[in-house]
Amino acid sequence: MPATVVFAGICFTGRLASETVPLMLLRIWQCHYLNRASIYPLRTRTAGKKMPTVVEGSGVAFNAVTAYV
Q: How many C-beta atoms surround the C-beta of residue 5 within 10 A?
């Protein structure tokens, strides 16, 4: 979820925040990452599987940096 929050925050504080094209790109980005962060994980069958915390932290950091860039 950091990619959706960081990218939206940067987009709305920028000088082109009210332009049509940046808002459409934001909408596409949000649809993709909300699906990737919310819907897809709920549909996968991961009952009983464990994931290391470092993998989760790396994913959060990578997505935050990617959203900023």
A: 13
